[in-house]
Amino acid sequence: MGNLRAERTGVLLGGIAVVALVYFGAAKLGLALAFATPNVTAIWPPTGIALAALILGGRKLWPGVALGAFLVNVTTDVPLYTTLGITLGNTLEAVVGALLLQRFGFDPSLRRVRDIVGLAVLAGVVSTAVSATIGVASLSVGNELNEGAATVWRVWWLGDMGGDLLVAPVLLVAVTHWPYREVLSHPIEAAVLFCVLLGVALVAFSSDVALAYLVFPILMWIAFRFWQPGATTAALAVGVIAVAFTADGQGQFVEPSEDDSLLLAQTFAGVIGLSGLVMAAITSERTRAQRRTRDVAHTLQAGLLPSTLARIPGMETAAWHRAGSAEQEVGGDFYDVFKGPPGEWVAVIGDVCGKGPEAASMTALARHTLRALAKQPIPPSEVLRRLNQAIIDGET
Predict the structure, then answer these.
(1) What is the maximal distance between C-alpha atoms in the chain?
(2) How far is residue 146 from each of residues 36, 80, 158, 181, measured CA to CA in Å?
(3) Averaged pLDDT, 219-235
(4) d(CA 198, CA 219)
(5) Residue 79 to residue 275: CA distance in whole angstroms
(6) β-pair partners for 373
(7) Quick one: which of 118, 34, 24, 98 has its CA closest to 65?
(8) Which of 341, 339, 348 is nearest to 312 (CA)?
(9) How does pLDDT run across 105-140, given as a tens digit for each residue?
(10) How far apart are alpha carbons 45 and 271 in whole angstroms?
């Protein structure tokens, strides 16, 4: 027991260390894009990393977020008490986001539209306000605001929102969708579409002409064909290209203020990220519903047919059944072989008009009624007459 506890503690500490290191590295990358205030940036990937870590690994990893946030802020030119305030806000942001999503019944695979809505509202809007509010208050106390509090709060809030809407989905999907059958089933198509997307994005964001929305059709097609893995990866790639060109002063999102420029690029990236996720969720939900329908239809059809044919002395019996439509496997076709009156055997082939559950229920009625009638010492014509009457009575 002691060894198991020590092993679990070691795994937890290792996870905390990994979260802290990844958070620190991503934060340094994000702060490189800060212009208005050294601790506030329009692009903040650590928010998404922290949220994904606490959702996938559990909220017990929160010390890793706190440690990473402290290390990255203590290396900037702000007072220690401001650093502690920002660290508190960043940590609470991740914990609150993970807690709200857990209470919401969030599925990190993002296969449902409700999960995307939950991620956008509870994490992207609500939890990010915690960090922005505490962080701006901490900067204000330390007299570190180079611009108005409202402006800095907006930049902070939207920057964290971008991390939750672009970075977190990539990490969540990367873990929950392994081994990426949607992509690997058509690797050549996936590679071609991604190359086309990157080429169009490079042209669109290097030009001052409004060409950014040319990436939408390609990204939607990727989401339609390759679901969440394709949608999240494509959105992140487009977001990186948009931000990189905008930060370099190129493209249609360039404004007099560098932070405003990045905010425009990030807002665009967030919109396409959500759009791709919604398309992927709708497509995957529809596909899964069709698969469930086919499975139910197959099971129902199998229940309407005999699992084995009766052995008739001196004869060999065999049967083969194929659904008339690949889309709808359950219908009104049926066959049966069974003992009739003493010394007789009955072989039946029937077809009830129509397809679907209604035809299946009629088939079940016809088959079981026919079995009961055919075992009586009456001629086949009388069996069919009584079967026809039973069907008429059942419809009235």
Answers:
(1) 103
(2) 6, 18, 18, 49
(3) 94
(4) 10
(5) 41
(6) none
(7) 24
(8) 339
(9) 999 999 999 999 999 999 999 999 999 999 999 988
(10) 16
Q: What does the pLDDT look like over 242-285, one tens digit per residue?
A: 888 887 888 888 888 776 787 788 788 888 989 999 999 999 88
Cα dihedral sign for 343, 347, 353, 358?
positive
Tokens read off for 151: 């402006």
Contact 337, 347 (CB under 8 A): yes
Which residue's structure tokens are 């606490």? Answer: 54
Tokens representing 236 are 């992140």
Which residues contact residue 206 at a Cβ distance below 8 angstroms, ignoring those fewer than 6 apart? 245, 250, 251
Distance, CA of 81 to CA of 212 (rounded, Å)? 42
Q: How many CB atoms lie within 10 A of CB 56?
A: 16
| Structural contact between residues 209 and 245, judged by C-beta atoms closer than 8 angstroms | no
Whole-model pTM over 0.70: yes
Distance CA 90, CA 94 (A): 7
Encoded amino acid at 160, one letter: D
